[in-house]
Amino acid sequence: MIASRRAFLKTAVLGSASLVIGFDGSGLLYAVEAKPGTQFQPNNWVRIDLDGSVTLTIGKSEMGQGVRTSLAMILAEELEADWTRIKLAQASPSAVFDDLGTGGSDSMRDGWRTLRKAGAAAREMLATAAAARWKVDRASCAASNGAIVHLPTNRRFDYGALVTDAGKLPLPKEPSLKNAADFKIVGQRTPRIDGRDIVSGKALYGIDAKIPGMLHASLERPPFEGAKPKRMQEEKARAIRGVRTIAKTSRGIAVVGDTTWAAIKGRTALAVEWDDPPAGAFDSEAHEKLLEAASRERGFITRTEKPPPATGAVAKTIEATYHYPFYAHAPVETMNCVADVRGDRCTIWVGTQAPNKLQKQVAELLHTTPEKVEVNLTLIGGGFGRRLAVEYALEAAEISRVAKAPVQLLWSRPDDMKHGHFQAASVHHLAGGFDAQGAPISWRHTKAGSFHNISPLDPKEVHDAAWYQDWSWGTYDVPYAFPDIETAYVTVDLPVKHGPWRAVFAPSSVFAREAFIDEMAHVHGTDPLAFRLDLLRGADIVKAGTTTIDRRRLRRVLEVVRDKSSWGSPLPQGHGRGVACNAYFGHTYIAYVVDLGVDHDGKVRVERVVAAVDCGIVVNPIGVEQQIEGGIIWGISSALGGEITFRGGVAQQGTYADFAVARMRDTPAVEVHILPSDASEPFGMGEPPVPPIVPAITNAVFAATGKRIRRLPIRPEELKAV
Amino acid sequence: MSEIGLTVNARKRVVNVDDDMPLVWILRDTLALTGTKFGCGVGVCGSCTVLENGKAVRSCQIPASEAKERAFVTIEGLSLDASHPCQRAWLEEDVAQCGFCQPGMILTACGLLRDHPNPTDEEINTVMSDSVCRCGTYPRMRKAIRRAAALLREQKR
Q: Which residues of chain A have pLDDT under 70?
């Protein structure tokens, strides 16, 4: 059902009169009557054709979060559209669609604010048009399932019959939105709109794009910045059948061939030998030592809560240092892009989370303007933040320019693993203080880490507390009621590419925080779940730096996992149960209880996870469950799977064999409890499930073995029975 | 480089490719059957899985010279209308997230159910653990495999 952009364009141009509603660049509603064969408005969210079919435009990238389905649900709900007749179109970057980025788990919140109004305005105009035709009061007309019904007489007009009239009406300034109680689509378990395409192999990802005359490229990149090729076997590469060109670009040496296989073989035959790494090339072990030393510095203070005068003195302090490694995104679809450069124009087919940035940077590369770069968005075979970087599109454009042909660039698995923009390593130093009576009264958390370097920092930005908080989610926003809090951030330069990963900065900090809270509970001699609940008393709404946390919502998710997991019930020998929770940006609240076993070889097996989530209004419960399940599996990968290490400036891992990710055998039974929420909007679910799962696992390992995990990933040899 | 005859989705095809070109690229580049995905090229992720006589095989590990005269079924050939019990079960359990690995997973599950019509958890773990889903659809896949097994048994009755 997903119309390709070209197919959509064709229908729009050939289609007859249609009512068009959308937003201009500043988010204001506008309406136009699309005349037969003459008009196409690329900035439309809603289009209704004479035949009554509804075309909804999706302005976010689909990468498995089900965003095409859930955004369409929001639009269809307010529009009272017939769900079975909906068509979707994917927005492409343009002057109007100037902010299509997908990240930060904000699609639902964004969509809720803008798309409801678009749908409601269309519905009101259709009702006004119908009322005028019947010469009745609009209040006696109601929209229902793709038609306006005159309630007293039960007469009806399908939307298609009202398109021409409605298009002539002025746009309602503040269309009235539906009451939640009247929702028919939002909140319903709704299967993915593209589900059949996926199971039939018809869903099209970037790697599946094919255009006439397209060649295939494989790119040999410098293994570290500044590396120069010492020698290569150009003649041997050219001798491979199907190899057309060896394209030397600013980003590496590409072998271009008639087929993917010719390009791969040509690159192997080219056998580029690169410079040896310079002395002092990046080494993750040395970097870890720098981070560890930095974690003991004072750093930039991101949050201070001064203890009230009545607070007793700290009588006992515990301290711990937590180590968090580098990770790769490792999406199953490796980076790829089709680029067709012709003069100062370029057409691109790509899976990206950052369409506008991609368009702008390709335009800069080609010394042209963004409107001359057409970017067609495909489905994404795994994003996780990786496809917020756009270098693979720049590579493809450069190769196409040299090869003078449309080119598909495909990264190999080792390319993808070694040239990612990694989740950065960090080290956390924490200290907790108890007063003379043993009550927990102080909290110190210093994160030593690195800013993202996939795009340059804005030199105009003021580096104040809010700015540093933005780089240290999960550190400054500790939700617990310590009278005395100080959190800090120390930056350490990191020369390898690093950038957003699923849950961005939160996983390392929440791991350290939720594991150390367990350490404090243990010293305090209190059950760790009860200890958390005790520390979530006091003011319900608290300001933690730039974030507002509702402790009631956090307590509720903890209470639900406590009750649903039979927290406190006995477990067999070698088994343990752990808990952790998090308030993601004060938006989505999640708690987990993990049951696991540790065998004699120290191998951890997560057996059961009970999850409770409050993500505000739930648009599609299936989507919420899937994201929790996926977040848990993601966390199992980072707790029990592989890490990325660097020697001589180069990532040492290159396959799923040496960077292990969770498999079916690592999968626990998962129970998801979605809590009714008093929030007035939906919050994101892509990232929030990730941060609290790892500490819930390591806390369960402690319960099972008495061994505190302060370094990831967990190494079985450390847990081996002695 | 030679002419190679093979059968794909019950259709005889003749392709003119290098002897060492893996089947995954014959399917994707030569025959434009892009439902079969490339994920790793070394047989550790399962994205390129196709069926041969009902058995799941990795198309990145079969060079053209060995694919000769053999018959394969890709996701496009599993059914005309997503009606195969595995596809139905996958839809009914709402398995897919990004969906990229799912053709390979569905065909791997077909192979599993051929050998184990009523698979135990351990059998599911053993066979399915050779494939990677980074979105983490495993809990739903497990349910879908059980549902597909039931559908297949029903079909046989």
A: 1-44, 722
B67 and B6 in a common domain: yes
Select the more confidently predicted residue: B95 or A115.
B95
Is the CB of A261 less than 8 angstroms away from the CB of B126? no
Q: Which residue has the tokens 């959308």?
A: A22
Q: Is A444 helix (H, G, I), strand (E, B) or coil?
A: strand
pLDDT, average across residues B38-60: 98
Residue A226 has what pLDDT?
A: 87
- B130 confidence band (pLDDT: 50, 70, 90): very high
Contacts of B141 in chain A (CB under 8 A): 664
Cα–Cα nearest to A600, from A704, A465, A489, A468: A704
Query: Is the pLDDT assigned to residue B136 strictly greater than 80?
Result: yes
A512-540, pLDDT tens digit by residue? Answer: 999 999 999 999 999 999 999 999 998 99
| Domains, in order of start, for chain A | 2-199 (3.30.365.10), 206-274+335-410 (3.30.365.10), 295-326+421-719 (3.30.365.10)
Same-domain check for residues B100 and B141: yes
pLDDT tens for A165-177 read 888 888 888 899 9
Interface contact flag, A259 B25, Cβ < 8 Å: yes
Which residues in chain A are closer than 8 Å to B39, comparing Cβ atoms? 332-334, 413
Domain extent, residue B121, equals: 85-156
Q: Which residues pair with residue A303 across a beta bridge?
A: A487
E strand or H helix that includes residue A466? helix A465-470
Rounded CA-CA distance A431/A443 in Å is 6
**B94 and B152, same domain (yes or no):** yes
Question: Taking CA atoms, what residue in A is nearest to B91?
Answer: A195
Show which of B46, B78, B110 is a domain's final residue.
Answer: B78
Interface of B with A in 107-146 (CB under 8 A): 124-126, 128-142
CB contact under 8 Å between B22 and A261, yes or no, is yes
CB contact under 8 A, A332 and B21: no
Strand partners, A604: A598
User: Does any CB of chain A come closer than 8 Å to the CB of residue B87?
Assistant: yes
| Strand stretches in A371-425, DSSP E | 373-377, 407-410
- CA distances from residue A326 to A422, A423, A515, A657, B75 in whole angstroms, order as listed: 6, 5, 19, 17, 36
